[in-house]
Amino acid sequence: MNWGGIIEPFQAFFSTLIDFLPYIVAVLVLLLLAWILAKVLRAGIRKLVRATGIDKRLGKGEDPQDPSQFPVAQGAGTVTFWIVWILFILAILQVLGVEGLFDSIVVVFQKIFAAVPNIIAAVLVLGIFYLVGRLLAKLVAKALTSIHFDELPVKLGLVKEAPTGAGSASNVVGYIVMVFIMLFAIIMAADLLGFAAVNNLIAVLTQFLGLVLLGAVIIGIGILVANFLANILRAGGRAGPMVSFVRVSVVVLSVLLGIRAMGFANDLILLGFGLAMGAAAIAAAIAFGLGGREVAGELLARWTKSGSSTGKTGDKTKK
């Protein structure tokens, strides 16, 4: 019996395994080092970021035992953990001699690491603008509260009682300031990252929101003017229908001007204005027809008598 033919495959297998054993040991050692180093660095980075107090500045960090109260520290530690693993995986691929896969992964990570400075700069820009935006929003809200800006919805006749808390007029203006600051920050961050499409989209959105805000301001001023004129007319003893007509006319005009400032179609505005004027004319005609029938009858009788008398005078003159 030829035992050599049976033993040769096993010999070749164990020979290959013995030749490959140093690589296996090296990979296991690298994996162990990666695990230890990643855990140590993750814990160290989390403690370091916690010591800076950045989470407390963001309104977090109330419970030291709750990891969710430290999102920045937890995130920084997790990122560090995976960066260490990625670097060790690249080293393991190089040890195993997987050149093609290793080269492809290296090219990908070279592009990623080349973009890291821009990514960090974009994150810093967003973070700085966020902090500045929150500060400015609070300052604007406090300044408007001091001048009783929260009573504006009541003066406009929109509500009976001024909203308080987050829904107050001063806080809403503060939120608007925050939104515009963050939109500007996103434009800068997108420019740093080379996202031209996002940059253009945010720029167009910012311009549109600015026009909408301008239109809202025009409408608000129109409502204030309408209420002011209505109060003057009431103080002068004018009739209620006249006061209502003046007030509604000023409000409608301000709404049309506000919509025009928002950049909507002029044809739509003209059509709405024409419909409003037509409705007012029809309403006046109906009101005159229902409430002024006697007056209309007297006027018609006078016109008839004057016409017949004129005809008789003309006949006598001819004779």
Could you walk me through the main structural features you see in this protein, from its secondary elements to its overall organization?
The structure is a single chain. With 319 residues, the protein is mainly α. It folds into three domains: 20-97, no CATH class; 116-194; 210-277, no CATH class. It is 85% helix and 0% strand. The protein has helices at 3-52, 54-57, 71-96, 99-146, 152-155, 169-193, 196-235, 240-261, 266-291, 293-318. It is elongated.
What are the main properties of this structure?
mainly alpha; 3 domains
* Main sheet characteristics: none
Number of domains: 3
Percent helix range = over 70%
What is the tally of beta strands? 0
Element-level helix/strand string: HHHHHHHHHH
Radius of gyration: 40 Å
Whole-Å distance between the termini?
A: 161 Å
Low-confidence stretches: none
Task: Note the beta-strand portion.
Answer: under 5%
Broad shape:
elongated
Number of helices: 10
Which structural class should the secondary elements be placed in? mainly alpha
Calculate the mean pLDDT score and round it. 74
- Give the assembly state of these chains: single chain
